From TrEMBL:
EC number: 3.1.1.29
UniProt entry keywords in alphabetical sequence: Hydrolase
Keyword Hydrolase part of the UniProt annotation: yes
Single GO term (MF): peptidyl-tRNA hydrolase activity
Domain Prokaryotic-type class I peptide chain release factors: from-to ranges: 21-37
Region described as Disordered: spans on this chain: 103-140
TM ranges: none
Keyword Secreted among record annotations: no
Enzyme class: hydrolase
Name under which the protein is recorded: Aminoacyl-tRNA hydrolase
Amino acid sequence: MLQISRTLTLPDTELTERFLRADGPGGQHVNRTESAVELRFDVASSPSLPEPVRARLLSRRDRRMTDEGVLVIQARRFREQARNRDDARERLADIVRGALAAPKKRLATRPTRASKERRLAGKQQRGKLKQGRSRDWSGE
């Protein structure tokens, strides 16, 4: 059971773990043990996720999400399989926690009069600077 928040948990039956050989330091040991973890979670067909959370997760532009709606997390940071397994589960929990809160709507605002004047003054100053360069260069 993976605890996401007080109200949301993901049962272990919805998580698929695959262990594979990791690259990196470890000597001969790294060639013999399968310490890296690939954690898969089917977001599209998970009955545990509320519909708004599922929609937010699926709408994210994330390279870890497959076209079928499966979130794939690879953990190979540590040399021990157990630590990589915990790392993958924690990263999955962080991703789902990020989708729990709905993003705030952006309130349309207008630029103030002073900010418009500052912008235009800056443009005029820049234009005069460039104009001054061209006169000096022509030899006049």
